[in-house]
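TODO from last week: model Phosphoesterase.
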Amino acid sequence: MELMKVLYISDNHGDAAILNRVAATFKDEVDVMLHCGDSNLPNTDPTMTPYQTVRGNTDWGLTYPRMITTTVAGVKLGVTHGDKDQVNTSLLPLSLRAQAAEVAVMGYGHTHQLAVTVDQGILLINPGSISQPRGEYRDLKGTFAIVEVTDQAFKVQYYNRQMQPVPTLAMQFSRD
């Protein structure tokens, strides 16, 4: 049974057009859209209205919080940028933050590289950078992710900038 769907996106670095396209395409398909920071757009910009957003390391002078938790359909979700959690070198600080916040899913950005794992029963997910990807999947030209949470599993699907699912980036993790 599906409990809820969350869209995670990150690191658009001022690219408002892609955020508008993603929101227009998926706003009616997901329960909440969480932005993992480095939007480089102020919260007064209408582009940001559909997203609950955190501040990243290049969001100079912007007033977004460093971390957000929200509960949707009984599932507690978190989002942070990750730069203060040293995500470039280890996921341990992020995992500890997620455990302390008692979230089921924690989204983060900063590395510009997509990544997903389950640690201590918590899904840790980096949607990758939608506008400036790095690493193994940079040739996709940018990614974001939708996570479906059920009682039994986390179902993850990554999408490209053309709003298409990437077949090789669909996965499922047990919640037990």
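Done. The mean pLDDT is 96.
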